[in-house]
């Protein structure tokens, strides 16, 4: 599976690049939308700060990014 975002992409970059990722962010209980820290936090940073599984969050975001790019 080819990644559509790099590991160092910020949550803000991911959400701007693929609006479908916003739903995933909200489903994981994150409030990155509108958060001033989203432009600094990577997926692993956000997962660590919110005590989430980084691999699962990344996989879910990846699926959303890929589905939005396949349309």
Describe the secondary-structure layout.
Elements: H1 11-17, H2 20-27, H3 43-49, H4 54-69
Helix pairs in contact: 2-4, 3-4
Structural commentary:
The chain is mainly alpha-helical and 71 residues long. It has one domain (11-69). It has helices at residues 11-17, 20-27, 43-49, 54-69. It starts with 10 loop residues before the first helix and ends with a helix. InterPro entries: CHP03980_redox-disulphide, ScdA-like_N_sf.
Distance between the termini: 17 Å
Q: Work out the radius of gyration.
A: 11 Å
**Overall 3D form:** globular
Could you report the average pLDDT, rounded to the nearest whole number? 90
Q: How many strands in all?
A: 0
Main attributes of the structure:
71 residues, 4 helices, CHP03980_redox-disulphide, ScdA-like_N_sf, DUF1858 domain-containing protein
Summarize the structure.
This protein has 71 residues and is mainly α. It has one domain.
């Amino acid at each position: 599976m080819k990644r559509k975002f790099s590991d160092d992409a910020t949550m803000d970059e991911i959400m701007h690049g693929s609006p479908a990722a916003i739903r995933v962010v909200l489903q994981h209980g994150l409030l990155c939308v509108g958060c001033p820290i989203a432009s600094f936090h990577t997926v692993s940073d956000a997962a660590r700060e919110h005590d989430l599984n980084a691999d699962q969050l990344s996989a879910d975001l990846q699926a959303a990014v890929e589905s939005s790019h396949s349309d």
